[in-house]
Amino acid sequence: MAVVLAMPAIFGSCDDAPRDVQPSDVQRLVQAADRIRIELGDEYDTPITPGTSSQLVRGARLYSQLCAGCHGSGGKGDGWTANKLTIPPGDLTDPIRAAILSDQGQLHVLRKGIEGTPMIGWEGVLGEADLRCVLHYVRSLVATEPDE
Ligand code: HEC
To answer: Top-level CATH class of 45-148?
Structure first.
């Protein structure tokens, strides 16, 4: 084990190819959440009441038109363009990931995108009501713990 761990140190000098090391996507999302928290101030923690069923239906339609190409139809990050992106979309169904941003934080991401990533802002495309429908739908994709 010790030998295996030492290998990169031994061979490191032979490998001078530039590496594009990205911080883990969870880390990047945590950093984005920190920036958004500062930008929004108190508003960051203001909860958003759960969507109505008609908002969810509309959100699902908008999601499949605008978001599924990258995020995948079920939100797993496996859309048809996902593997062409420099930064892959994360899994929107992952409860740990979903807990990183507050409701307002996630709405802010939908409006403005995440700087430096392929996630663009949608405020020029979707009005406020539609942004909320999509937010509710995205929230509904999060896997819940199985009942005990
Ligand atoms: C061009 C591909 C692309 C499209 C289209 C796109 N996204 Fe994203 N999205 C991304 C990527 C890549 C990230 C991850 C950025 C990161 O890891 O920092 C992301 C991040 C997010 C996040 C932050 C939470 C998380 O787990 O990463 C949310 C929420 C989100 N997208 C929702 C949407 C919604 C809703 C739409 C449609 C209105 C959409 N995205 C359209 C690529 C895309």
So the answer is: mainly alpha
